[in-house]
Design goal:
This protein is an alpha+beta fold and 59 residues long. Helices cover 24% and strands 14% of the residues. The two termini are 20 Å apart.
Length: 59
């Protein structure tokens, strides 16, 4: 899978098995810093298809 991150909108797609969506959301909620910068990581949507999910990263 190619990189599904749009640096302009700062949105991306994470591919994961549907059984582990709740675990991923909990993990993302615990992220407070990336490379020393304070961040807030939010889950915007869940999709069954990567192409549909990729539309959310477009500007």
């Amino acid at each position: 899978m190619q990189d599904k991150f749009n640096s302009t909108t700062q949105k991306g797609v994470i591919r994961i098995n549907h059984k582990y969506v709740d675990y991923l959301r909990a993990s993302l909620a615990l992220v407070k810093q990336i490379e020393g910068n304070d961040v807030i990581v939010r889950s915007l949507t869940v999709s069954g298809m990567l192409n549909k999910a990729a539309k959310y990263t477009a500007g």
